[in-house]
């Protein structure tokens, strides 16, 4: 199964909210399944964004399934909530990257043009907040994001975000799902993917 097929399967199996079909259609028509996850760090290759989203999903499911996590923090979330926050936390990266070229010496010492990813942000609305904004344009009525889902997506970067550290700490303290998603995102980004892995 390709990453795209796995993503669509998990999405369709778990996400049933009003507007979910239109959001999936939006993803399919965008570059979500071909975009990188970053320009040079984790998932900096074609299809890195969907692979990263799946890695975060699996890391989050694993983290939340640990008995000690449930016992200590009382974390117990629906399969739908887990799928939403993990699979969609980085939809802000849709149409965010473009390919440019630079000169580099190859193994023979000859200069050649090589492609690389660069940022071309057509909707400069931040990171996590942009993902919440995009998702909120599709889920509506009683099926909109819950407050905890919105905060989890908004603060999934944790302390690596550029916001005031007190605000980040307060959000992670108030919303355990935000903390859990941050843990899953960091595990996927640094331990599963890393800057040297594909």
Keywords:
single chain, mainly alpha, two-stranded antiparallel ribbon, 9 helices, 52% helix
Multimerization state: single chain
- Strand order within the widest sheet? 1-2
Q: How many β-strands, per DSSP?
A: 2
Q: Main β-sheet, in a few words?
A: 2 strands, antiparallel
Specify the number of helices. 9
| Structural shape | globular
The value of Rg in angstroms is 17 Å
Encode the helix/strand succession as letters.
Answer: HHHHHEEHHHH
End-to-end C-alpha gap: 17 Å
Low-confidence stretches: none
Number of domains: 1
Mean pLDDT: 90
Strand content: 5-15%
SS content category: mainly alpha
**Helical content (DSSP H or I, runs of 4+):** 40-55%
Protein described:
The structure is a single chain. The chain has 198 residues and is mainly alpha-helical. It has one domain. The chain contains nine helices and two strands; from the N terminus they run αααααββαααα. The chain has helices spanning 3-14, 20-29, 48-65, 67-73, 79-88, 128-136, 147-154, 165-174, 176-193; strands at residues 97-105, 111-119. A two-stranded antiparallel sheet has the order 1-2. A hairpin with a 5-residue loop joins strand 1 (97-105) and strand 2. The model has no long low-confidence stretch (mean pLDDT 90).
């Amino acid at each position: 199964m390709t990453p795209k097929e796995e993503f669509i399967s998990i999405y369709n199996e778990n996400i049933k909210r009003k507007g979910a079909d239109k959001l999936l259609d939006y993803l399919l028509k965008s570059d979500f399944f071909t975009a990188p996850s970053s320009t040079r760090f984790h998932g900096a290759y074609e299809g890195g964004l969907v692979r990263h989203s799946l890695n975060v999903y699996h890391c989050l499911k694993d983290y939340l399934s640990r008995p000690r996590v449930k016992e200590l923090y009382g974390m117990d979330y629906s399969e739908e909530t887990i799928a939403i926050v993990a699979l969609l936390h980085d939809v802000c990266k849709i149409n965010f990257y473009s390919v440019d070229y630079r000169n580099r010496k190859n193994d023979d010492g000859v200069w050649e043009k090589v492609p690389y990813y660069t940022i071309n942000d057509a909707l400069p609305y931040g990171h996590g907040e942009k993902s919440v904004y995009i998702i909120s344009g599709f889920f509506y009525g009683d099926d909109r994001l819950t407050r905890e889902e919105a905060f989890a997506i908004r603060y999934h970067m944790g302390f690596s975000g550029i916001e005031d550290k007190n605000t980040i700490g307060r959000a992670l303290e108030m919303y355990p799902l935000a903390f859990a998603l941050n843990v899953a995102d960091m595990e996927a980004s640094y331990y599963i993917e890393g800057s040297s892995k594909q």
